[in-house]
Amino acid sequence: MKALVLENIHPTAVDVLRSRGYEVELRSGALPEDELVESLDGVQLLGIRSNTTVTERVLKSAPDLQAIGCFCIGTNQVDLVAAAERGVGVFNAPYSNTRSVVELVIGEIIALARRLPEKTQRMHDGVWDKSARGSHEVRGRTLGIVGYGNIGTQLSNVAEALGMRVVFYDKADRPAHGNARRMASLGELLETADVVSLHVDGRPGNAGLFGAAEFAAMKPRALFINASRGMVVDYDSLRSHVLSGHIAGAAVDVFPVEPKAQGEAFESVLRGLDNVILTPHVGGSTQEAQEEIGRFVAEKLAGFTLQGSTALSVNLPQVLTPALDGEHRLGFLHHNVPGVLANLNAVFAEAGDNVIGQHLSTRDHLGYVVTDASEPLSAAAVDELRRSEHCVWLRTW
């Protein structure tokens, strides 16, 4: 089997896949759609980060593709519905780089509060500006976290350890950590927080979440941080509020349009502003995080293609399969309609095959059942199941 791995994914991922018997082709950068279509011929696994977009057209042109590994948190760069319809499993790393993002945000909060970006720039320019004007401790300040998921909650814990007060807003009903307080609305959070940090996902409904009205509602001289998604924020409005002095400083790690390859020119209306930290989408890019992401996602891909496990798939029904130990396994992804499981078991019964274990899960319009049996089904029985009108794919191990 062949894997195509793009965007400088950590070598640990390559080592894991090769140890499982995959032939791995490496590309250093992201691929545009036409080139990606050409490159997926005969490829079963695709490994990407955030700069490669997998559209429905790409999926249609890749009949051999079985799974996509997003070696990052986000999966909005993949058409998840189109992938599910074709039985292509999509896996990501929702936890592996959480700490790295949190540490970057904490560092930015302190740097912005102390106005370090402009201080260090003046030193490089040969200007000695020894002044405490505009510099503050973060202890006792209020951090407002928008999006209280894996990253938001861990940021909450670390910020409290620094002596900050924490408030948060999330549309989902999430429990507060420590002394953090839930805000009833985004507006209430903006009125309260000295620092606002965004940690929302890339779903379409979050596009344009933070614009002119939200910046205007923030406390005067508050700080703003976005390490979530570039399309969430109107950066023209952020620029205006920084220039006016209403926003005292900002740190931005993600942008609506980002260069596709290392060394390409970067353009932004935020360039050149005092007390604004710009980083090239490196929130989760530490050696520790990238190594863990590489291992985690590669193991999920191998588990799916070699043993049928869909645990932590973001688009297929989730079934955690036991390790294979002499039994014969059949994985059956199908349309979620009544009678499919009964028909499957009738085929096993008619073949006189003893079922050792069976695991079933459904998700939206799809169902996935993994059956372990003492003997392999005959080729004729397998073909009968594959011809079923409800079959998306059938695989045996």
Automatic annotation (TrEMBL):
Keyword line: Amino-acid biosynthesis, NAD, Oxidoreductase
CDD domains, per the entry: PGDH_3 (cd12176)
Pfam families: 2-Hacid_dh, 2-Hacid_dh_C
Pathway where it operates: Amino-acid biosynthesis
Residue intervals of the D-isomer specific 2-hydroxyacid dehydrogenase NAD-binding domain: 107-283
EC number in record: 1.1.1.95
Record-linked InterPro entries: ACT-like_dom_sf, D-2-hydroxyacid_DH, D-isomer_2_OHA_DH_cat_dom, D-isomer_DH_CS1, D-isomer_DH_NAD-bd, NAD(P)-bd_dom_sf
Start and end residues of each D-isomer specific 2-hydroxyacid dehydrogenase catalytic domain: 4-314
PROSITE patterns: D_2_HYDROXYACID_DH_1 (PS00065)
Class of the enzyme per the UniProt entry, highest EC level: oxidoreductase
Family note: Belongs to the D-isomer specific 2-hydroxyacid dehydrogenase family.
Protein name: Phosphoglycerate dehydrogenase
Organism: Nocardioides cavernae
